[in-house]
Amino acid sequence: MQHIKIYHSHSLRAAPDQPEIIIEGPVSAESLQELTMHTKLDAFRRPKEQLEALVEIAQLPEGRIIIAREGSTIVGYVTFHYPDEIERWSQGHMQDLIELGAIEVADDYRSIGLGKKLIRLAFEDEQMENIICFTTEYYWHWDLETSKLTVWEYRQMMEKLMKSVDMIWFATDDPEICSHPANCLMVRIGKKVPISSVEQFDRIRFQQRFMY
After folding, report:
1. Are 156 and 149 in contact (CB under 8 A)?
2. pTM of the complete model
3. Element (H, E) at 186
4. DSSP character for 85?
5. How far apart are CA 47 and CA 53, in angstroms?
6. What's the DSSP call for residue 195?
7. Rounded to the nearest 10 degrees, what angle do helices 114-122 and 151-163 cross at?
8. Nearest C-alpha neighbor of 70 from the set 30, 29, 101, 105
9. Kind of pairing between the strands at 168-170 and 184-189
10. Distance from C-alpha of 101 to C-alpha of 57, rounded to nearest angstrom
11. For 98-135, what is each residue's pLDDT tens digit?
12. What is the distance between the alpha carbons of residues 40 and 131, in angstroms, rounded to a whole number?
């Protein structure tokens, strides 16, 4: 399995008098080690520990990290990697099944479309057309308090974000996703993915035979 990684970089300013923000990736582990995390990037773990996790992912053959940074400070990121071994999505050990694992943007940078720009950069030059990319959206991971959105408004926002790279809603009988109606599975099947992989993914999505 060839994991194609083509580096891209874009820049933007929230306003003409605001500092330049660089969106780039996939970035190397060595590059990440030269940077620091914004103090508000703490949704999953403390910023320093999160940076260490990003470095580890960047070292994986399939891992890719896309970041947004202001100078040497990371203000947003998105991760791609194989699903965790304890999750059903790792069953079958599919080499062409990659999870969009986490996306996080610091509070002060959430109004300029960084999330969409981070994800779109990852798919540039058709570098992910040979994989099935999926993400599992759980409402308990969402920052409802800061965003002031309801569960359903946040779900709509996340669905719109994933649709910007042609990820669409897929049904599943996974108990964790089915535990709340706002949770969902979003999937993008690359144009070069063989039908055998699609069929294998379908068997992973549905494990209760009466629902298949």
Report:
1. no
2. 0.93
3. strand 184-189
4. T
5. 10
6. H
7. 40
8. 105
9. antiparallel
10. 10
11. 999 999 999 999 889 999 999 999 999 999 999 999 99
12. 32
